[in-house]
Specification:
This protein is an alpha+beta fold and 141 residues long. Helices cover 33% and strands 38% of the residues. It is built from 4 helices and 6 strands, in the order E-E-E-H-H-E-E-H-H-E. Strands 1-2-3 form a 3-stranded antiparallel beta sheet.
């Protein structure tokens, strides 16, 4: 099943504005200021961060359950860094921070499974061109 998104931009880069939809229920507005100057509104990097955090959480939950240690919860934050480079604005780093509540697992196994989820999640693989994707994984409880 293909995932759908739509965006429309009106005007020039600095004074224009846009709207987007992702799926049937996610929508927002974006602008130069929301993307490059921390102004109000959304931006594509926020959508990417949400997608990566979601994909990673699902992948880790699946890997852990398949290994016989089902999770109570996996909460993940993703921070996408956009910097100006010689090639223009570029995503230079993504930092994943996750906390898992997983009864019956030891720290070393949790770290190993988290690393496998980072390497294997669909969004991580799609973002293979990002120079740095880091993971800080914490086993809670």
């Amino acid at each position: 099943m293909p995932a759908k998104g739509h965006a429309e931009w009106n005007g020039d880069l600095k004074s224009g504005s846009g709207t987007f939809t992702a799926g049937d229920t996610i929508s927002g507005e974006f602008s130069f200021k929301s993307r490059f100057e921390d102004g109000p509104g959304a931006n594509p990097e926020q959508l990417l961060a949400g997608a990566h955090a979601s994909c990673f959480s699902m992948a880790l939950s699946h890997i852990l359950a398949e290994a016989g240690t089902p999770v109570e919860s996996v909460k993940t934050d993703a921070k996408v860094t956009l910097r100006q480079t010689e090639n223009g604005p570029t995503i230079t780093a993504i930092a994943l921070t996750t906390v898992g509540v997983v009864p019956g697992i030891d720290e070393a196994t949790f770290q190993q499974q988290a690393a496998a989820a980072k390497a294997g999640c669909v969004i991580s693989r799609a973002l293979a061109g990002v120079p740095e994707i880091t993971l800080e994984a914490t086993l809670a409880g």
